[in-house]
Amino acid sequence: MKLSKEEIVFEVIKERRSVRAYKEQNVPKEMLTKILEAGRWAPTPSNVQSWRFIVIQESRQLKSLKALSPGFPRQAQVAIAVCSDQRDMQIFEGPWPPILAAEEAAVAVQNMMLMAHSLSVGSCPVVSFSKVGIRELLKLPNYIYPIFLVTLGYSDDRPVPPPRKPLSQITFWERYEEAI
Amino acid sequence: MNKDELFNLCMYILVSAEGLRDEPKDYGPLRLLEVLSRLAELMATKYNDPFSKEVAEEVHRKQDLVMTNKEAFYQFIEQLVVKFTREAKGGEK
User: Fold this and answer.
1) Which residues in B lie closer than 8 A to residue A68 (C-beta atoms)?
2) Is residue A165 domain-resident?
3) Which residues does chain A have within 8 Å of residue B18's beta carbon, measured at their own beta carbons?
4) Number of domains forming the structure of chain A
5) Which of A68, A127, A149, A156 to mutate to test the interface with B (most CBs of B within 10 A)?
6) What secondary structure, in 3-state letters, does chain B show?
7) Residue B93 lies in a domain
8) Residue A124 predicted with pLDDT over 60
9) For position B5, what pLDDT does the model report?
């Protein structure tokens, strides 16, 4: 049975899990390119496209990255450091640049993880890492902020979907109402 | 247990100490469990110890419960304490 576009999209969204156990199998470069392309097409405030993607797959570099990231799944074969170039964010005033950078990175990461899942590649977003350490390891200048690590690899696990709050508990129409 | 493995473990403990200041409270036990599993792995290899091997595998399998089922996660830690206590008493079943 042919699925509609809506069904395919929703299926990919619902099936994606954060994968923390991977097989020792490389992810081909053409797949990584598709995943990065999906990130590039994410929404971006005022089209600044401040994101910078650093792909880490060389074993020594990956080993150091794992050592700096307590949240890093051990057997991940590839990681993408999703960073923001703060020079692109200078058009925004006040407290917005770091907030917008994090939002921009988050939507790009979601796009990448959905593309990865559709290619049967598992992924996991990681924010538990040493910013100072990653900055040193990846030779990031001070205007490049590391925001996420996305680990990738072929899943060696079928994670159980964690429970979700019902839509009725988290959705309000027209105005917010505190539950009594 | 080679120097490289020990160094990585030291680094893990250090960056956990740095990160835990801003992370959820439950991540403290999670990070300690990870250290436990890595030490158990090292012990299993160095001393060919089945108890350590079993612990390392079990922790590796169950530590992510913290993300999905906190009650089961803390039950698991309690079970591990019982398991270690029995082992300390001489492998009592």
Assistant:
1) 11, 15
2) no
3) 130, 132
4) 1
5) A68
6) CCHHHHHHHHHHHHHHHHHHCCCCCCHHHHHHHHHHHHHHHHHHHHHCCHHHHHHHHHHHHHCCHHHHCHHHHHHHHHHHHHHHHHHHCCCCC
7) no
8) yes
9) 83
Instruction: Examine residue B30 and state whether it is found in any structural domain, yes or no.
Output: yes
Structural domain range at position A87: 18-158
- What pLDDT is stored for residue B91 in this prediction? 63
- Give the distance from residue A159's alpha carbon to the nearest chain B alpha carbon, in angstroms: 10
Q: Is A133 on the interface with B (CB under 8 A)?
A: yes
Per the structure, the complete domain to which residue B18 belongs is given by: 3-88
Nearest-Cα distance to chain B for A161, in Å, is: 8
Interface test with A, best of B2, B8, B18 (most A CBs within 10 A): B18
pLDDT in tens, B41-92: 989 988 999 999 999 999 988 998 898 889 999 999 999 999 999 988 886 6
Which helix (H) or strand (E) segment is A134 a member of? helix A131-137
How far, in Å, CA of B39 to CA of B16, rounded? Answer: 16
Whole-model pTM: value is 0.86
The ipTM, to two decimals, is 0.71
Domain count across chain B = 1
Q: Are A53 and A32 in contact (CB under 8 A)?
A: no
| Count of A-B CB contacts under 8 Å | 33
**Band of pLDDT at residue A108, cut at 50, 70 and 90:** very high
Query: Is the pLDDT confidence value at B93 over 60?
Result: no
Does any domain span residue B8?
Answer: yes
